[in-house]
Amino acid sequence: MNKRRTPSRRQRGVALIEVLVAILIFSIGVLGLIGLQSRAIAVSMDTEDRNRASLLANELVSMLWLRGTSDITADEKTAWEDRVADATQGGLPDGDGGYEIATLTGGRRQVDVTITWKPPGRKEDDPPSRLTTTVVLP
């Protein structure tokens, strides 16, 4: 008396469609996570470049502070610019560094150190990244 009911013709394959829809939703979620991970890596690399630029600017400012003046020799400036441009030696990709000196009231000098670079994955028409540090020397 235990009669088994068989699904009607219209209900056959519903479980398969449900599984396929679940796999589709899961796949979209996984692709979203992969995109999020790649964006996190790109931001991490940009942060690393900004940190290196900050350290290079600090190096130049330290030289100026140690001298007690807003000038360094041409050889020191060339060596610093070479370090900024050499990505293999702790510099930046397509790095370019320079500084400008402005005299303030009271004889103090303001030094603006600007470093620009272009990360390897960035488009050609995108502007370069830039870090500017401003220091007032006594």
Low-confidence stretches: none
Terminus-to-terminus distance = 102 Å
Shape: rod-shaped
What is the helix content?
40-55%
Report the C-alpha radius of gyration, rounded: 29 Å
Order of helices and strands: HHEEE
Mean pLDDT: 85
Number of helices: 2
Number of strands: 3
Strand arrangement within the widest β-sheet reads: 1-2-3
Question: Could you walk me through the main structural features you see in this protein, from its secondary elements to its overall organization?
Answer:
The protein has about 140 residues and is an alpha+beta fold. It has one domain. Helix content is about 50%, strand content about 20%. The chain is built from 2 helices and 3 strands. It has a 3-stranded antiparallel beta sheet. Helix 1 runs antiparallel to helix 2. The N and C termini lie far apart (about 100 Å).
Provide keyphrases for this structure.
alpha+beta; 138 residues; 3-stranded antiparallel beta sheet
Structure at a glance:
The protein has 138 residues and is an alpha+beta fold. Helices cover 48% and strands 19% of the residues. It has helices spanning 14-67, 74-85, and strands spanning 96-103, 109-117, 129-137.
